[in-house]
Task: structure prediction
Amino acid sequence: MKKDITKEQIIETALELMRDKNDLVSLNLRGIARTLGCTHTNLYNYFSSYNDLLRETCVALQEIFLDMLAKRLEDASSLEVRLRCFFEAFADIYLDNPGWFRLLWQETICDERRDLRLQTALTNKRLTARISDIWHDLHEEIQNEENVKNALHITHCYIIGEVSNFLSGRGWLENEAALREHIAHGATRIFSLCLSEEVRV
Result:
C-alpha cells in the first residue's frame, strides 16, 4: 500500500472517478483510496470527511473551467464567436463531464464552509469581468457590473436547466449535438437581451 500520496493526487483521482458518475453517493473515500493504492485512513491526513473532499473538488473544478474557458476564447476567430464561445464552454464542460455537473449543481454538500462560498464568489467575479470585456469589445459600450453579473446569472441558470433536463432524460432535445447548438444560441440571445436597452435586469 502506498503512503506517499499528495492532496493534489487525491483531488485529481476523485475528479476522474466522478467525471461520468450518475450518482456521487456511490463514491466514497474508500473507493478513492483503493484507486490510489492506499488505505482510506491516509486520506484523512488531508480531508476530515468525504464532504470536505467534495468542497475541495468543487474549488478545483472552478479553476479547471476558468483555464478551459481562457484557452477557448484565445482560439476564437472573431468578437461574435468569442461571445458565443463563452457560453458554449459551459455547455461543453457540463455535457462532457456529467458527474462534474452533478457535483457542482446537484450534489448536497453538508456544512458548506466559508472558503467554498468565497471561491465561488471570486469565480463569478472573474467570469463577469471576462464577459464584460467581450461585450465592450463587441459593442463598444461599458455595462454596469451589476447588470452584467445579473445577466450572466440568468443565462447560466438557463444553461443549468437545459443540461439538467437532458441528463435526466426529460429534455425536449434528445440529440446532444443539437442540444449544444441550442444552448449556445439560446444563452447568447438571453444574455444579449438582458443587456439591451429594452430589457434591463
Notes: The chain is about 70% helix and 0% strand. The domain at 58-194 is CATH 1.10.357.10 (Tetracycline Repressor; domain 2).
